[in-house]
Structure formats: structure tokens, C-alpha cells
Amino acid sequence: MGFLIHIVVSAALLFFVGRLVYGIEVRDGKAAIFGALMLGLANGLVRPILLALTLPITFLTLGMFVLVVNALMLMLAAAFVDGFEVKGFWAAMWGSVALGVINFLVGMFL
């Protein structure tokens, strides 16, 4: 049950970020739910590998390169979901920052 609640909250946040950030479009609730699922899969499977491969550059940039990896995960999730589009790297960068901040704030209250 907790997993289902987490996906619904993530989908709502993704839908909100789609309205907040120019260049990210989430057409409907179905796209938001599948986008949240795909983002969870990308963050669970691909992100750890990318973080391990980019560890030297992450170290040199004092951790700031993780923002690039997060943006790439958002773009990867959008590539596989119809109705969820990310138009360019900078939209993905701002979207991942917004998603991270909002997710942190919601996590503090829940």
C-alpha cells in the first residue's frame, strides 16, 4: 500500500512540475503515473550505475554533477512515456531541481 501511495504522490508532483517548468509537459494523469513509475525505475536501475561511472567528475565538481545525472534520468523517463515530454537539457535540469526540492518539502510533511 505504501508503494501505491508513493507512486500517486510522485505522479502528482511530476504533474505539478510539468505545470511549473517551461519545457516539461505532462498531458494527463495517466502520463504522470507512468512517468513516475518510469522515473522510479530509472532512478533505481540506471542512476546508481551512472553515479558510479561519473564518480570522479562528481568529486571534482563537489557533487554538483549529480544534478546532471538527475536531469538525464528525467529525460530518460520521458523518452519512454507517451504524454510526458522534456524539451531539452535545461528544462530537464530545472525540472529535476524543482522535483527534488518539492519532493523534499513534501517528504518533510509526510
The gist of it:
79% of the residues lie in helices and 5% in strands. The protein is built from 5 helices and 2 strands.
Q: What spatial order of strands do you see in the largest sheet?
A: 1-2
Q: Assign an overall shape.
A: globular
Please give the count of helices: 5
Binned strand content: 5-15%
String of helices and strands: HEHHHEH
Ends: how far apart? 15 Å
Low-confidence stretches: none
The overall average pLDDT, rounded, is 94
How helical, in percent, are the residues?
Answer: over 70%
* Helical/strand content category: mainly alpha
Radius of gyration over C-alpha positions, nearest whole angstrom: 14 Å
The number of distinct β-strands equals 2
Number of domains: 1
* Sheet with the most strands, sense and barrel status: 2 strands, antiparallel
Give an overview of the whole structure.
- The protein is mainly α and 110 residues long.
- It has one domain.
- It has five helices and two strands.
- It has helices at residues 2-20, 29-53, 55-60, 65-80, 89-109; strands spanning 24-26, 84-86.
- Strands 1-2 form a two-stranded antiparallel ribbon.
- The protein is globular, with a radius of gyration of 14 Å.
- The two termini are 15 Å apart.
- The mean pLDDT is 94.
